[in-house]
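Quick one: structure for this chain?
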Amino acid sequence: MLLTVTTTHGPATDLGYLLVKHPGRAHAFDVSTGTAHVVFPEADEQRCTAALLLDVDPLRLKGRPDAFVLGRYVNDRPYAASSLLAAALSRVFRTALRGDSRDRPELAGTPIPLEIRVPVVRCRGGAALADALFAPLGWQVSAVVLPLDPDPASPLAGDSNYVDLTLTGTLRLADALNHLYVLLPVLDDAKHYWVAPDEIEKLLRAGEGWLADHPERHLIIRRYLAHRRALADSALARLPVDEAAEPDSVDDGPAEPKRPLNALRREAVLAALAQTGASRVLDLGCGQGALLGDLMRDRRYTEIVGTDVSSRALATAERRLRLDRLPERQRDRVQMWQSALTYRDDRLRGFDAAVLMEVIEHLDPERLPALEAAVFGHARPGAVVVTTPNVEFNARYEGLTGMRHPDHRFEWTRAQFQDWAHRVAAAHGYAVEFRGVGEDDPALGAPTQLALFTTRKESA
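Got it. Here's what it folds into:
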């Protein structure tokens, strides 16, 4: 099976640096199902193409549940792109998938023109599914259905379940490769290996920054995790809070889906803000802007500022909120600032309230004092709403090992969170109260814990 990646970004041969493969050489890698080869059929200053060819050894396809005795040898696995190719992609282009480049670090973080072609993909859902999966990610999609037999007079004439897929767009190479890593098995709707709970970590890592906001995320999660409902629900629950959306369950059965935790969390934050009477609000660490959208829909908030250390997240939030399409009067209520919460920023002073929704757990514990000084000490809003996961509740998530998200640096028990909040409140002149968010377990508490800090003058 074959996959090619082409760029015309000058000099185009820099593609070799991004992939960590020399364009003038042939590269071979032993993978679990055969041998993966990387070659560059064209490589000059104007245009460069890297080709990944996977040579599958049928004897290595262990444990396939084929319906007939020769199914291990007579199948489409050596020819049609699937999870086999995704696994080879991860093995061969591991550094590029992470977005790392020792020789071209700036280029690794820059969108470049790309054309990706996979000549044969098994696509259970046809060309329309390929378009539905890739188009929302910024790709122009060409998915040509392959005929069973090109001869119209043949008894096998008609469409097959395979497409010739070509993607064109201007994206970071790391993003492009992660899209393929997740979506090739989703198109095929089959995996060549047993899907264990650690697949959730792989999915969240590869889907960071795009999966949670994808309109087909439920189908993607369900198929990637081989329709194992418990794993799929756990994966959905762990998507970044500012990106995930309903429903909370990815099962298609008749059962009434639970209210999604992220929606309950935003409602709890909005209720706490309403209690303070705030009208000028900061969303600190706003990510892709889910809470900002709720704030914009509430007329009581006359000035709304979203901040994030990531310019990419801010740009995504602006697109998601369609700020460029708002009437001028509404647009003037909202501002987006790039700012790091561990540094003092004079622009953040004087606001009625600030929100740190699922933010603190993304900081190394030794950086928390800097955040406390910058937010509670220097910016000193009239009220601060903080939410963070309750690690005790993690026992309810089947298949979860470790923390809820790969980027979490810590997760606290209720006692640890309250100890931290009381210390911060005492140090900076606030009072604090606590609430649980989501389903409350008598022994474990709620999945999310919320603290509302108010200045002592306001709380009197």
